[in-house]
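Hi all, a correction to my earlier message: I attached the wrong file for MSP domain-containing protein. Here's the right sequence:
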Amino acid sequence: MINVDPPTGNFPASGGNSTHNIVSESDSRLAFKVKSSNNDHYRVRPVYGFIDAKGKAKLDINRLPGPAKEDKIVIQYAEVPAEEIDATAPFKAGAQQGEIIVKIVAA
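and the right structure:
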């Protein structure tokens, strides 16, 4: 299980940046993948990464100028062994265990 802090993102339609923490409540190491419902106006970094057991990872969201609207960021996650070095591998293998949705609003 993961959570995102803060759980939503609010941006001016003219563009802006927001930093969030992806927080793991799992006793296992996790890999994550970040997807957006609007790739024209949002950039996320990193797209793939790891979170140690009970750890956290930083997620930067950049909103480019565009029309005001609601979108979402979806963070998928999967348990991985400590020796895994490729964060994309579990998703290529279809190993997704869960996901969390972050509502993002440009006004």
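Sorry for the mix-up. The chain has a mean pLDDT of 96.
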